Every structure is written in C-alpha cells, then in structure tokens.
User: What shape does this take?
Amino acid sequence: MRRLVLPVLAVALALAAGGASSAALPKNLPCPNKASWQKLANRIKAPVYCPAWLPDPLVGTIGNRWNNINSVGPDRSYLESFVWQETGGGAAGGELHVNLRGYPGRTTIPTCSEVNTVNGKNHTVNIPCFADPAGTVRAPGITATMYTVNQDADQWHVLLAWHHAGGLYTVSEHVAPPLDYDKVVAYLKLELNHLVLIKPSA
Assistant: This one.
C-alpha cells in the first residue's frame, strides 16, 4: 500500500499549485468499466453516473478493490463508495473517499436521523442528509449545488447534488489528509466534469 502514497501526494500537490484542472485532462474520458455501471443502471431501471476520473489510486469500477460499498435500496436508490486508506502515520497517512449516489424518482433531499441529548435523555430527530448549501458548480449538462454539512456515509464530506430525469444524484468526497477543503472542492469539480451518464438498456 505504501507505494501508492506518492502518486496520491503528487496529484494533491499539483492541485495545490494550480497545476491540475479539468483542462489538463483529456476530454470525454471513458467509463473505466462500463459493464459494471450498465448492470447497476439495468438493475434500478434508471440512469447512473460512472466516474471516469477519480483521484489516484481510486478507479471507478463497481466490484474492484477500492469499491467498499455497493448498495441498492428498496426504493432503487444506490450508494457506490470508493476508498483508499493509508494508516502508516505522519506524511504517509491519509484517506481518499468518494461516494456516488442516485435517488431515482425523487428530487427532494432525503432525511437522516440524528440523536440529540437533552437533560440526559436521547431524542432522535430527523434532519436533511445534505445541508448548508454553498453555491453551485457547473459541468456539461449538470448544475450542482454544493453542500458542506452532510450525514451518514457522507459525513465530513463536501457534496455536490443535481437533478436528472426526475432523480437526485450526488458525488461527495471526504475532507481528510492528504487533502484539505480547497483540494477536495477542486477534486469534486474534476469528478463532476468527468462523469459518464449510463442509461438502462433493459
């Protein structure tokens, strides 16, 4: 695992120096394994977004070593999570964690549960899963709202959400070393610009 740290840090440093941008990447990058995303689209009978670009070493193939969550709910909503972790400590430590979600047939923000303690008693309250909007980010065919306070698998992530074909879609990334907030936002813009829409074929 340690051999993967240098590429991650190199990309992070390039972003910090302004040396990496969507313009620096080839246009129309292909989905790394379209078949895996086509299977998901067919399963939920709705479009999905394949990430053609993720920060090194992550690769957006469902079922690969980085894909730690591959989940579809009864309502056909899905969560695909990709994570890299290095626990060596110091400069070698860090995490890259990207989530992609889709909520076919709904455009409203889902509700999450939070436990609050009042006078020594726990109370469960419902709160929006995505909150604190902080402007918009645009990519070809997408106008996304950025949310900075998010829950569940997206906690401590910056998240972009947008609508397509009557559904809600999101991509989020964890703010954690080796990336700070500004670098995560830069990565999210790259990820948004290199999403590949996969429509169901069956």
User: Anything to note?
Assistant: The two ends are 39 Å apart (CA to CA). The first helix runs from residue 5 to 16.
